[in-house]
Structures are given as structure tokens and as C-alpha cells.
Amino acid sequence: xxxxxxxxxxxxxxxxxxxxxxxxxxxxxxxxxxxxxxxxxxxxxxxxxxxxxxxxxxxxxxxxxxxxxxxxxxxxxxxxxxxxxxxxxxxxxxxxxxxxxxxxxxxxxxxxxxxxxxxxxxxxxxxxxxxxxxxxxxxxxxxxxxxxxxxxxxxxxxxxxxxxxxxxxxxxxxxxxxxxxxxxxxxxxxxxxxxxxxxxxxxxxxxxxxxxxxxxxxxxxxxxxxxxxxxxxxxxxxxxxxxxxxxxxxxxxxxxxxxxxxxxxxxxxxxxxxxxxxxxxxxxxxxxxxxxxxxxxxxxxxxxxxxxxxxxxxxxxxxxxxxxxxxxxxxxxxxxxxxxxxxxxxxxxxxxxxxxxxxxxxxxxxxxxxxxxxxxxxxxxxxxxxxxxxxxxxxxxxxxxxxxxxxxxxxxxxxxxxxxxxxxxxxxxxxxxxxxxxxxxxxxxxxxxxxxxxxxxxxxxxxxxxxxxxxxxxxxxxxxxxxxxxxxxxxxxxxxxxxxxxxxxxxxxxxxxxxxxxxxxxxxxxxxxxxxxxxxxxxxxxxxxxxx
Length: 548
Ligand code: ACM
What we know:
Distance between the termini: 39 Å
Bound molecules: acetamide
Shape: globular
CATH superfamily of the largest domain: Glycosidases
CATH architecture of the largest domain: Alpha-Beta Barrel
Number of domains: 2
Structural class: alpha/beta
Strand order of the largest sheet: 14-9-8-19-18-17-16-15
CATH topology of the largest domain: TIM Barrel
CATH class of the largest domain: Alpha Beta
Largest sheet: 8 strands, parallel
């Protein structure tokens, strides 16, 4: 009898859940659905009371988005009473908020501007899809379901990385991706600006970076309809001007997204060395911008003080453009062969009593992160900076870098944590899933060429566990977040970028926000089916495999 009762209760809960009227992704930490709804009124007031400008601006932005999509004439006012009431409270976690909707109106409590922003994002997301899509429709009924939400993110770092070196994407296209990040409450845009195949950031002191360094001699395109082909034309120069980088920073800031520039060094540096071969290990040897993927043996000559100064000058210029607290200097996949053959490097290794040539990289990383620290920036690194055999952990760790662990992901993250370093998990590929969302999500015939074998499905991405239960509890606080990472060796066009990234970006967003025990793939599938309307309204391309 008792077990019969339990079965009834569980299946009712399942049904209620499935029929939820609240379409929110990522799923909130706690949510209780009520009865009825609150219908939005044309002259609705968002009352921000005596909140300072830094908080009330969230009300103004919400009202502007809402009115533009609905034709309502809501206003944000410094009154105490209104259909939506905002109140600052001291007991909400950073980025957290409490939202109560009943038949009389809406109450929002938060402690920070980010908290209010996420509450307003939730409000927009619960309305018809055109509101989040920012497309005008004044004929719909606009109402919120009655609900109580208490929400905060699981991780403070919720990232998306885009490689714009292998192929270039315009600011307009970046904004489309940033809109998705904001809709799903992601908060760090990691902008991989340089690599072997192209330098994409204007640097005033070194103009050849964005002429020679931003132009590849040829280009491979994977067209979603025509297949893969070489253009046999120069590709570029493609780069972002200083003003365009500032524009992206500002666009992100309005959405509570911090931009992290990445200048990958001392490896993955061929485009820079094509422009300034004097900073390579073999200056008389001509170097051209790469057209294919892989790892080059051409790397920065870290034993040449002028080459090191060049790298610092580049970082200094970008530190002035990117106001955020972080700077990523890569450090992945850096062969030491060219250093072994170079007299300066041989001399430095000997004179400083290093055990191996990898220590040259650790020494360089320390010097660059000292420099970044002097500019008020924290260094971010790929995991090889600590996991590559022969690395000098003490030197690399000195300025407390954050380690982005990709391969071997869990081992790298654990090693970072054991050494007192914070880590961001961005799994390359494992038996249980991947956060490299450029990899093929299906091996069906007709799938465009791409990285991977097609087993990195949305479901495996969603179900990947970023912090396994085996991680000792005292180390878990070092796992500060997770990231969806997107490389573009195969991806040259906006439609293919979106097709691969969506909806896996949302799967990672939910893993970043929702507690592990609150996740459920079937419910995610249901909510993504509803979100197709928003994606379709904005003309996004997205993988449809999970909907079949
Ligand atoms: C990487 O995928 N090379 C960080």
C-alpha cells in the first residue's frame, strides 16, 4: 500500500513537471509553480524605489526590450509600488535573485545588478518567445505564470570560447552568439583572438600583425550545402579594430558577460611570426600563416628579450581595451623542438641550470603573468602549462593562474586543484561526453565534415559530469566553472557555427547554472523543443538531431 502511494506521488510529480508552464533554461535552483497568471498591462510600471543607477539601469533595459518586442508602454520609475517591484536585499548570493509572481504582480529581490539582470532575463524567458528573440508582435497575450523562484548559479564561471583565428566571424555574428549566452545566463566570453592561422586583434605598435598576420594564403571552407573545398584565394586580412573590440566588450557588459581576450603563446603563434619572423627561433627561415590545423614547431623565441618584449607590448595594448580582470595567454600544445635547436635557448637553459627545455615555457609564463599582474590582470592558462612533462609548477603557479582543463581534462583539473589552483572544466572528449561543441554531434550520412567521429551528441554533452563525485570535497571549491569551447578549423560560416553550437551551448549553460541533481535530459529536450520558436524567429541554425 505504502509503495503504491509512493508510485502515485512520483508519477504525479513527473506529470506536473512535464506540463510545467514555466519555460526556463537553465532550470532554476528552486521553483514552485502556483495557480493562475499575471497579465501584463500596457502602462505597467517597474518600480525601482531608491535603488542606485547601477541597479535601476537593469529596469530601464528590461523595459526597453519588453516594449520593443510587445508594443507595451511599460516604464521604469523610482516609485515604491508598481506591477514589478524591485528590492535590494543583503541575503542574496552574488548573481542570485528571488522572484515571486502572483495574480497581483511581480516582486524581485536581489543583491547585485547581475542578480536583477538574471531575474529580468527569467521574466523575459517566461513570456512568448518573441520577447527573448527581440522580434515585434503586438497581437500576443503577454502573461507570466504564477511562480516562486529562488535562484543562483552553481558555478561562478559559465563560459563560451570562440576561435576566430582559424576562421573569422564578424562582430554582428559574435553578437548573435552573445545573445544566446545572455539568454541562458552565461557570463564569460573567452575570445580566442590569435593562433597559427590568423591574428585578429589590431595592435598599434605592430601593424604587420593585422596585414601579414591576418591573411592566410588559402582557405578551406566547409559549406553546409556544397561540402568542403579550398578557395585557392588569400583569406583576409580579417581582424577586429580597437573600436570593434571595445564594441564587443560594451555589448557583453550590458549582458553581464566578461570578455576574456586570449593571445595564445608561446606556441600556436605562427601568424605573429609570419609578420615578425625576427621573434622566431630561426629568423632567416621564411614563415607563412598556416592554412591547416595541427601543431606547428615554429614558436616564439622565449630566450630573446626583444621577442619577450614584443609579447608584453601586445598584452599591454589589449589590457587597455579589455577592462575585465582576466587575460588568457594560452600555453597549450607548445613543442620544444625549435628551442632545442636555438643557441639563445640552449644558453638560457644552461646558464639558469634548467633540467629541460619545457622549463623555458614555465619561465616565460611566469614572466608574462608577472607582467599581467602589474597591470591588475589575472592570468588564465590551458592545462599543459602545468601538465606538460617537465613544467616548473612553482614558477607557473606563482601568480595563481586559473587552469582551463581540456586534455586530459579531469586529470588536469585535479592536478590544478591539488596544487591550490582554480580550474575551469572544458572537456575535449571522453567516453562520457565533451564540452568541445565544435565536434560533430552526429555520424548520420550527410553530416558536414568536421572534428570528431560524430559521437559528441547533445545528450552526452548534457550528461557529462564536470565535477565527478570522486573529487575530494576539500578540492571541489577549486572547480570554479565550466566552459563550452568552439574551434573553427572546419567552421567558416555562420550557419555551420550555429548548427554545431546550438543547442549544445544551452546544455553547457544548464550544467553551469543548475545544481547537478536538478538536471534531467528529457526535461531539457522538452524545453529546447519550446525554445526552437525563439531560435527560428531570429533565424538561428541549430542541430535538430535531439528533436527526432
Ligand atoms: C586546445 O584545445 N588546444 C586547448
